[in-house]
């Protein structure tokens, strides 16, 4: 239980930006972004076939293959196979695509094929962590979600297949990579995952996992990687929340957070990045970045010292629950 694999560093680089989420990024900018991450001491990189229909994996491979493989953690995802298609497939929020289309497959055979295909796109010898991607009710109708989850969790499904890949030593750990808590809880109760990538659910805007998911992770020895610590960039000043335009309630909540931050002289983006890392089950946080400037800013934000009074005020004003662990000393990389 104590030997479950964890990422090398607590701050990572999410790969959506390298897959051209919301806007295009040049190959050169993608490479220099990964180089900037390396120079900042970041040694955890996350990608997925879905991100630009292979574009993110391709770019990470180009940037990382000259680095010593044992010196960093790499995670990718299964659940979508990529089939050749000269026209490509643009799938929002991504605006670019390599010449492939996505095919949903949550079987054990599909998971193995997806890992093998990812290794080819990355041109790397192994992958450390594999997440079952987007097997979540926010991605499918309820009936479709139940159908696909039954496949993944059942005999011959992706869960069983990834346990086997771990036992064979082809991967070091596996779990779910999703935007909702429900599938993570069900996976923990039905299989033997090591680590989860949960995006946007444990942030200054929302703390749903505190009630049930994080305690069960602690009991089972599973770790959590936090994706989307800015809620699709919303806490860093953007206009999207959960990958779509934010509603008035979200804007009002952010304004209350901004007012507290202003009173204490705190950069709200720094607080957003540091908050999640304070929970003991959280192994890493992986904000996305599509340029070296974004990356360097994230590394700086993670190290900014935030006064304890700021966190106490958030609790006192009902913006954070009393049960949330609060950052103490500024976390490092």
What does this structure look like?
- The protein is of the alpha/beta class and 333 residues long.
- It has a single domain, classed as TIM Barrel (Alpha-Beta Barrel).
- It has 11 helices and 12 strands.
- It has helices spanning 27-39, 55-64, 108-122, 142-153, 158-167, 182-190, 213-220, 248-264, 268-277, 292-303, 308-316, and strands spanning 13-14, 44-46, 73-78, 80-84, 100-104, 129-133, 173-178, 195-199, 223-227, 240-241, 244-245, 282-286.
- The chain has an 8-stranded parallel sheet. A two-stranded antiparallel sheet has the order 4-5.
- Helix 3 (108-122) crosses helix 5.
- The protein is globular and about 55 Å long.
Chain-averaged pLDDT = 95
Number of domains: 1
Shape: globular
Largest sheet: 8 strands, parallel
Number of contiguous helices: 11
Detail the poorly predicted runs.
329-333
Strand order of the largest sheet: 1-2-3-6-7-8-9-12
Q: How many β strands by DSSP?
A: 12
Q: Pairing-aware structural class of the strands and helices?
A: alpha/beta
User: The CATH topology, please?
Assistant: TIM Barrel
What is the CATH architecture descriptor? Alpha-Beta Barrel
| CATH H-level superfamily | NADP-dependent oxidoreductase domain
The H/E string reads EHEHEEEHEHHEHEHEEEHHEHH
CATH top level is: Alpha Beta
Give the proportion of residues in helices.
25-40%
- Whole-number radius of gyration? 19 Å
């Amino acid at each position: 239980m104590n030997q479950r694999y964890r990422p090398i560093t607590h701050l990572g680089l999410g790969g959506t930006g390298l897959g051209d989420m919301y806007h295009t990024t040049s190959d050169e900018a993608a490479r220099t972004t990964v180089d900037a991450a390396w120079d900042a001491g970041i040694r955890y990189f996350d990608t997925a076939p879905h991100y630009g229909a292979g574009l993110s994996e391709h770019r990470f491979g180009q940037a990382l293959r000259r680095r010593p493989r044992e010196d960093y953690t790499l995670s990718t995802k299964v659940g979508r196979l990529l089939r050749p298609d000269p026209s490509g497939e643009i799938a929002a929020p991504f605006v670019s695509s390599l010449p492939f289309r996505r095919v949903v497959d949550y079987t054990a055979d599909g998971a193995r094929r997806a890992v093998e295909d990812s290794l080819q796109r990355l041109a790397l010898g192994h992958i450390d962590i594999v997440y079952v991607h987007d097997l979540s009710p926010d991605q499918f109708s309820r009936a479709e979600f139940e159908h696909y989850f039954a496949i993944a969790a059942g005999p011959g499904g992706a869960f069983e297949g990834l346990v086997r890949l771990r036992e064979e030593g082809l991967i070091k750990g596996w779990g779910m990579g999703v935007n909702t808590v429900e599938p993570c809880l069900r996976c923990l109760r039905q299989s033997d995952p090591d680590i989860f990538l949960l995006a946007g659910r444990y942030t200054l805007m929302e703390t749903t996992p505190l009630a049930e998911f994080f305690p069960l992770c602690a009991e089972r020895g599973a770790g959590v990687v936090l994706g989307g610590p800015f809620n699709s960039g919303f806490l860093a000043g953007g206009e999207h929340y959960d990958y779509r335009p934010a509603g008035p309630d979200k804007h009002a909540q952010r304004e209350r957070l901004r007012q507290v931050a202003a009173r204490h002289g705190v950069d709200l983006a720094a607080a957003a990045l540091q908050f999640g890392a304070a929970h003991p089950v959280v192994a890493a946080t992986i904000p996305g970045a599509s340029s070296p400037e974004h990356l360097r800013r994230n590394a700086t934000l993670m190290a900014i010292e935030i006064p304890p009074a700021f966190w106490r005020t958030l609790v006192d004003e009902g913006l954070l629950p009393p049960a949330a662990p609060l950052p103490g000393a500024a976390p490092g990389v």
